[in-house]
Amino acid sequence: MQLNGRSEGLIPDSGKFLDAWKKGISVAGEHFFRCEDIHSIEKATDKDQLRPNWKAIKEGLRELSPGEAVFLIAMYSYFNAYKGQELFKMSGLDCTPCHVFAHIDLERRVIIAQLGVHYCGW
Q: Which domain of life is it from (predicted)?
């Protein structure tokens, strides 16, 4: 079914975004995110409870493989696109969509795609 030129399953949905965000956190590493007012990522009911940790990401990038770094920065970019761009520049990695998808595995591609489809803004 089409709604306003979009497939029904492709309408931004904050619940589906949160589900993809949680998957992304588990793949990228929980230590790169802050669990606000909760004890685990699974208990989060809002994306604001799972904000990226700028300092941990900035310090940890050099220890990640290029694919891991690209994935983590792409995730951060949903939180703050300008700071995400800064992380890409600091890491020396290209941030074009083709580059992002070329350097991550299928699991990470699906997560980034789901985040994009269901992104409702931060």
A: Bacteria
In a domain, 71, yes or no: yes
Please state the domain count of the chain: 1
Whether 68 is covered by a domain: the verdict is yes
Please compute Rg for the chain using Cα positions.
14
C-beta of residue 83 within 8 angstroms of C-beta of residue 57: no
Q: Tens place of pLDDT for every residue, the chain, 122 residues?
A: 445 555 555 677 899 999 999 999 999 999 999 987 777 888 899 999 999 999 999 999 999 999 999 999 999 999 999 999 999 999 988 778 888 999 999 999 999 999 999 999 88
Cα separation, 44 vs 61, whole angstroms: 25
Residue-number span of the structural domain to which 96 is assigned: 12-39+46-118
CA-to-CA separations, 20 to 5, 13, 62, 64, 75, in angstroms, rounded: 24, 11, 25, 21, 10
CB 49, CB 36: distance < 8 Å: yes
Does 6 map to a domain? no
